Amino acid sequence: MTQISAGAAFRKAVKEEAPLQVVGAINANHALLAKRAGFKAIYLSGGGVAAGSLGLPDLGISNLDDVLTDVRRITDVCDLPLLVDVDTGFGSSAFNVARTVKSMIKFGAAAIHIEDQVGAKRCGHRPNKEIVSKQEMVDRIKAAVDARTDENFVIMARTDALAVEGLEAALDRAQACVEAGADMIFPEAITQLDMYKTFADAVKVPVLANITEFGATPLYTVEELKSVDVGLVLYPLSAFRAMNKAAENVYTAIRRDGTQKNVVDTMQTRMELYERINYHDFEQKLDALFAQQKAK
Questions:
Q1: 208 near 232, Cβ under 8 Å?
Q2: Dist. CA 91–CA 17, nearest whole Å
Q3: Would you say residue 277 has pLDDT above 70?
Q4: Which residues bind substrate (predicted)?
Q5: 188, 196, 220, 235: which one is catalytic?
Q6: Can you say whether residue 51 is alpha, beta or left, with left for phi > 0 and alpha for psi between -120 and 50 degrees?
Q7: Confidence of residue 180 (pLDDT cuts 50, 70, 90)
Q8: Binding site annotation covers 123?
Q9: If DSSP codes are grouped into helix, strand and coil, which group holds residue 11?
Q10: Is 158 a catalytic residue?
Q11: First CA to last CA distance, the chain
Q12: Which pLDDT belongs to residue 2?
């Protein structure tokens, strides 16, 4: 049986689950947990890499190698197709965008989204964003499409224009990106449900809804988003936020109480961890190897 590429697997998932739920996985362990929960695709957030791996804000500080490190770790252990946030492409020219695309494919990613903010970017749900010209964004998409070494690798265009220039400008940019070869569209910081329908009708390709907590977009349900023809629903940092809060609570309790006894019931058990990372499969192989060596 021929194994399909990661990009082809992502496209297949989008067709088979409408809309496709794509959940953020901050690391390889979370990728396995997402698969265990039944998700068909996962996501690596640029803001998640910055905050989670580097302890830095999402302000364009992280670079391509920072993201590739986490991509490789995830794709090494989890076969779910991975959508990756590549910010503005990690560089100021088409050559940088091309290098990013080729590297993502090489490291096992299935798809990327690239945005139209300036290099000194910020979280899409923060104020005072600055965007490049429509032509510069189109050039980014063309560079990404031309650089593909796998024709099924997905190039998704994200536009932050809604908050900066309004709906019509955002629609215009989205349509221009599709004409340039973008496979899917990610309109960021949507504030009204019917806006998704407007984008879907205009671009005629799958539209992603970013349902991130504590942002500009209400926490619409899958059914609500399906009703306006959304193709993918993204939950970029939900588990990460929960993980951080849980960690803070445990640290506080240990420091306050001098013991972890009062928070043990909030923890994943040793056996649960072993099950999630298939620990016993590795240990059995070690046991077999040791047995062979003793038999010599």
A1: yes
A2: 34
A3: yes
A4: 45-47, 123-124, 158, 188, 210-212, 241, 270
A5: 188
A6: alpha
A7: very high
A8: yes
A9: helix
A10: yes
A11: 38
A12: 64
Contact present, 230 and 200 (Cβ < 8 Å): yes
Average pLDDT over residues 43-51: 97
Q: How many residues does the chain have?
A: 296
Q: Does 270 belong to an annotated binding site?
A: yes
Cα angle vertex 44, ends 41, 46, to 5°? Answer: 150
| Catalytic residue (choose from 30, 158, 183, 235) | 158
45 is in an annotated binding site: yes
Alpha-carbon distance of 55 to 45, in angstroms, equals: 14
* Span 262-288, average pLDDT: 93
Mean pLDDT score, 267-296:
89
pLDDT attached to residue 119? 86
Query: Quick check: 1 pLDDT over 60?
Result: no
Domains, the chain, ordered by start: 6-243 (3.20.20.60)
pTM over 0.70, yes/no: yes
Q: Which of 154, 119, 189, 117 lies closest to 20, judged by CA? A: 154
**What is the DSSP-derived secondary structure letter of residue 263?**
G
The chain-wide mean pLDDT, for the chain, equals 96
3-state secondary structure of 95: helix
What DSSP assignment string belongs to 34-95? HHHTT-S-EEE-HHHIIIIIS---SSS-S-HHHHHHHHHHHHHH--S-EEEE-TT-SSSSHH
